Amino acid sequence: MPSRPSRRDLIAAAGVAAALAPAAAKAQAQEPAMPTSDKIGFAIVGLGKLSLNQLIPALKIAKGARLAAVVSGHPEKAKRVAAENGLPADAVYGYDDYDRIAKDPRIQVVYIVLPNSMHAEHTIKAFKAGKHVLCEKPMATTLADAEAMIAAAKAADRHLMIAYRCHYEAQNLDVMRRLRTRSMGKVRQINTTMGRQADLSDPSDVWRLDGKMSGGGALGDMGVYGVNAARYLLNEEPVAVQAWAQTDRSDPRFKETEDLINWQFRFPSGVIANGSTSFAYAPTMAFEVICEQGRLVADPAAFYGGNRLTVVKGGQALPPVPAPAGDQFAREMDWMADVVRGKAPMVSPGEEGLQDMRLMQAILESAAKDGATVKTDWGYRRAVDPAGVVDVAKA
Ligand code: NAD
Questions:
Q1: Which is it for strands 240-246 and 260-266: parallel, antiparallel or unpaired?
Q2: Whose CA is closest to 356, among 193, 259, 168, 219?
Q3: Distance of alpha carbon 122 from alpha carbon 113, whole angstroms
Q4: What is the pLDDT of residues 199-215, one digit of tens each?
Q5: Taking the CB of the first residue and of the last residue of the chain, which one, N or C, has fewer CB atoms within 10 A?
Q6: Minimum CA distance residue for ligand 1 atom 10
Q7: Do residues 301 and 286 make contact, with C-beta atoms less than 8 angstroms apart?
Q8: pLDDT per residue as tens digits for the range 118-154
Q9: Strands 160-162 and 132-135: what pairing?
């Protein structure tokens, strides 16, 4: 039977992240919310599940961001949501009069929360209207669209941030900071498993199973969390990938997209990261980092709440570390607001989204060739390490 962990182990498990949090970030943790008039105004584009259940509620508790407008193809729903959230009638837009946002000074950031194939068009329109853009993952369905989004941001001299919420989530930041200190020696292997059962009776899953609208089924929807996690956990980029897919084409869900995909990234440091995604296995968003002297098991690693970290050291599991309270969506939007104010560095730029898209394309290319090695060292390096700058306790 495992013996009780020592007090030293417990303190180490709970305290590494706090000890490493930048001093400036700690000071921010106590910052009160600012007056509504000083908050950065967000227009939410697309009133589906994520917007209604996570983003609009998060804007109510965000410290520096607020809901300024809604954009939807369903006027009645949009009017209702606006009224419920205290927005005036002229803060409701349809896709046909979306360009009118250019003349609306209440909106500084446009948050794109539409099916993936619609991200590029609405992002580029928002830049033409002079707004900054926060865009959901995966950033687009084609590399050409992703590149056009980045170019449009540059041409408009506006910020493009991809909504990688784990870059702003306390537990993920905790794990990144533990790994940066090598508290358990060098990382040897990472395993990420991200998937769930897709359901054709849910309209949100109908477009996710459509090859053109989703750009890749489970891989773009869930697998992208594992692709991104392997990179931010290590703070390095894979140089080669091999992948395999297993899809039952008689299953009506998988007419166009792959079901189960497994891949292996090789990193310059020698770490191997195994990734898996599926739209036909039990729900999971978990990762495990195997180091020389211990393991970090985050399960769940990327849920909206209730994430949990188990540190296994010397073969003994320490008591799980629950993620600190706080809303990761509010943190993410507050971070974008601070980027717009010039008070925070951009952590998740369009280039981050593009790198994941290129890697996902390499995964599909390798899977189509039954595991052939695809080289992925394109020279991309992340500009800002979330572990170095993002305050876990801000929201
Ligand atoms: P959803 O299907 O619930 O909502 C999509 C919205 O787009 C709906 O309001 C729908 O009416 C609208 N829409 C407009 N044109 C449409 C069309 N032609 N077909 C289908 N819908 C259309 O989806 P969601 O779960 O809110 O996802 C939206 C985006 O957010 C996606 O890019 C998804 O990957 C992303 N997402 C991110 C997270 C996260 O944790 N960051 C979680 C869920 C979804």
A1: antiparallel
A2: 219
A3: 10
A4: 999 999 999 999 999 99
A5: N
A6: 48
A7: yes
A8: 999 999 999 999 999 999 999 999 999 999 999 999 9
A9: parallel
Task: Provide the pLDDT for residue 53.
Answer: 98
The pair phi, psi for residue 191, each rounded to 5°, is -125, 125
Interval between CA 25 and ligand 1 midpoint (Å)? 32
pLDDT score, position 33: 75
Among protein residues, the one with the nearest Cα to ligand 1's atom 1 is 48
Q: What is the pLDDT of residue 31?
A: 61
pLDDT at 153: 98
Phi-psi region of 342 (alpha: psi -120 to 50; beta: other; left: phi over 0): left
The reply to whether ligand 1 has any atom less than 6 angstroms from the CB of 113 is: yes
Task: Output 72-78 pairs: Cβ under 8 A, ≥24 positions apart.
Answer: 72/45, 72/46, 72/47, 74/47, 77/47, 78/47
Portions of the chain given CATH number 3.30.360.10: 170-324+349-389
User: Ligand 1, from 47, 49, 50, 54: best to mutate by most atoms within 8 Å of Cβ?
Assistant: 50
Q: Would you state the pLDDT for residue 196?
A: 98
Low-confidence ranges of the chain (pLDDT < 70): 1-32, 392-395
Contact at 8 Å (CB) between 380 and 228?
no
Pairing of strands 294-298, 308-313: antiparallel
Ligand 1 atom showing the smallest separation from residue 163 Cα = 41
Cβ-proximal residues to 170 (8 Å cutoff; 6+ apart), any chain = 17, 307, 323, 324, 326, 328, 392, 393
pLDDT of residue 394: 45
Q: What is the pLDDT of residue 268?
A: 97
- Specify the ligand 1 atom closest to the Cα of 49: 3
Active site residues: 137, 225
Residues of the chain with CATH 3.40.50.720: 33-163
How far, in Å, from the CA of 114 to the mean position of ligand 1? Answer: 4
Contact 138, 114 (CB under 8 A): no
Domain 170-324+349-389 fold: Dihydrodipicolinate Reductase; domain 2 (3.30.360)
Q: The CATH number of 33-163 is which of 3.30.460.10, 3.40.309.10, 3.90.1150.10, 3.40.50.720?
A: 3.40.50.720
